[in-house]
UniProtKB/TrEMBL annotation:
It is a multi-pass membrane protein. It is found in: Cell inner membrane; Cell membrane. GO terms for molecular function: metal ion binding; potassium:chloride symporter activity. It comes from Oceaniradius stylonematis. Belongs to the TrkH potassium transport family. K(+) binds at residues 221, 316-317, 433-434. This is Trk system potassium uptake protein. InterPro entries: Cat_transpt, TrkH. Its main location: membrane. Low-affinity potassium transport system. Interacts with Trk system potassium uptake protein TrkA. Keywords: Cell inner membrane, Cell membrane, Ion transport, Membrane, Metal-binding, Potassium, Potassium transport, Transmembrane, Transmembrane helix, Transport. The chain crosses the membrane at residues 12-30, 42-59, 71-93, 135-157, 178-202, 237-261, 273-291, 303-321, 328-348, 393-415, 457-482. GO terms for cellular component: plasma membrane.
Length: 484
């Protein structure tokens, strides 16, 4: 590994850490407004992180290296690790009194927009901590690499290659300059967040709840300001506002830009959008019918809860409107299946994106047809677009690696003393960045707090793996990556 390359990567991360430190002043001011002593925690954390970041940035300043794939992988990983470590500092010193493992877990869950939490007593928690959690998800949902565009120009490095590594968006960008595209993403994201907050407030949320939930809704994150999550809010209109914006957040941002700036409705005819909406609608109707047939919940209430639950899990947001573990076994099985689904590529969602499912089933379909017509030449398609062989190969690698890591994670978490349901659903929800798992411990009404610290470190690493599309992290484990 070239020393100048490593120094430049650390320099970029230090600049980002300095910006993150200044953002800590916002929840600090909120605590000061509410006369909460934790404002000192945010002020001191901002000073400490900002001071260290400034010193490191000065010490590592050098001429920019030649941009390469290896450099982009290194910067992406360092940015996310820096983001998570720096974000954990206010949790460590706040009056909520949690361990280092808990603080890092909560920070990683926020940064990766996963929504898993170790905290209880959210209803009476300092407002600054609640806002900080929501801010982490909002920043992480947008993508640290997009925000990195404010940093990379100082190094005279383009941001397009970094965005491709960190995001699964494969759309043709609507602008020639990548910076124009990135600023459009930020603008659309912020505008939708404000609109979501306004509608939440209209439906009966307090202003503070509306702002926090709007940020975590658009980030597909799921952090709430209440222990009961969305079950705290009884107005059905609040639930439907959440449903609509969770779906919007799961759509490709490129398509949203084309709609907002050029009135291009045809962007939503993309096959992945139709597939995502298709399986989400199918599972929601299936669950609502089952709840009605089994007389689990009255139909009107059950329909809203079924749609909310399915949309929340499929979009990897992770809000809970009820304890679905108490509904029936069918619901638990359906939720488990929905955990590995996801939204569209280029959105804020996690999970296995709709594009990958399209490619997988295309490969299966072609293989079955080959058994019948062994000499026929057939291609894998997504709509009218032919999928290249390399994309097919990478997709199959992704599926194999995803479920292999889920199995390894299950074994490792189980070794810490967790039961099988907790271990398996915990590993799966971490890789999918969904949030809640299954069972009494980490289910929709539980938290990850009771788990051993070792399990929390394992799951935190799993959340980073899932957010960075697996291979972005795993490539660092290859000796060839570090060879000069």
């Amino acid at each position: 590994m070239n020393a100048n390359m490593l120094r430049s990567a650390v320099h970029v991360s230090a600049i980002f850490a300095f910006y993150l430190a200044t953002m800590m002043l916002i929840p600090g001011l909120v605590d000061l407004y509410y006369d909460n002593e934790d404002w000192k925690v945010f002020a001191s954390s901002a000073a400490m992180i900002g001071g260290i970041a400034a010193l490191v940035a000065v010490a590592t300043r050098s001429s920019p290296p030649v941009v390469s794939t290896r450099f982009t992988f290194l910067v992406v990983n360092l940015l996310w690790l820096t983001f998570s470590a720096a974000a954990a500092v206010p949790f460590m010193f706040a009056t909520i009194d949690i361990s280092i493992a808990d603080a890092f877990f909560e920070a990683v869950s926020g940064a990766t927009a996963s929504g898993s939490t170790v905290l209880t007593g959210l209803d009476t928690m300092p407002p600054g901590i609640l806002l900080w959690r929501s801010m982490l998800q909002w920043i992480g949902g947008l993508g640290v690499i997009v925000l990195g565009l404010f940093i990379l120009p100082f190094l005279k490095i383009g941001g397009a290659s970094f965005f491709k590594i960190e995001s699964s968006d494969r759309y043709d960008r609507p602008f020639a300059r990548f910076s124009t595209y990135a600023y459009s993403v930020v603008g659309i994201y912020a505008a939708l967040t404000l609109l979501c907050a306004s509608l939440y407030a209209w439906s009966g949320m307090s202003g503070f709840d509306a702002i926090n939930h709007a940020m975590t809704t658009m980030a597909s994150g799921g952090f709430s300001t209440h222990d009961r999550s969305f079950a705290f809010f009884t107005n059905p209109w609040t639930h439907w506002v959440a449903i609509v914006f969770m779906i919007i957040a799961a759509l490709p941002f490129t398509a949203l830009i084309l709609l907002a700036l050029r009135a291009r409705f045809d962007a939503f005819r993309d096959n992945q959008v139709l597939v995502f909406l298709g399986y989400t609608l199918f599972l929601a109707i299936l669950l609502s019918m089952q709840l009605d047939i089994s007389d689990t919940i009255e139909f009107r209430e059950g329909f809203t809860k079924a749609v909310f639950t399915v949309v929340s899990i499929v979009t990897t947001t992770g809000y809970a409107v009820d304890n679905y573990m108490e509904w029936n076994t069918f619901t638990v099985a359906l939720i488990l299946m929905a955990t590995v689904l996801g939204g569209c590529a280029g959105s804020t969602t996690g999970g296995i994106k709709a594009t990958r499912w399209i490619v997988l089933f295309g490969i299966i379909k072609r293989s079955l047809e080959t058994f019948i017509y062994p000499h026929a030449i057939r291609t894998v398609r997504s709509g009218s677009v032919s999928i290249p062989d390399q994309t097919q190969y990478v997709t199959m690698m992704y599926f194999g690696t995803f479920f292999m890591l889920a199995g390894i994670g299950t074994v490792l978490v189980a070794m810490t003393g967790a039961d099988l349901v907790t271990a398996f659903s915990g590993a799966l929800t971490a890789l999918s960045n969904v949030g809640p798992g299954l069972g009494d411990v980490i289910g929709p009404t539980g938290t990850f707090g009771p788990l051993e610290d070792s399990a929390k470190w394992i799951l935190a690493f799993g959340m980073l793996l899932g957010r960075l599309e697996l291979f972005t992290v795993l490539v660092l484990l290859s000796p060839a990556f570090w060879r000069d």
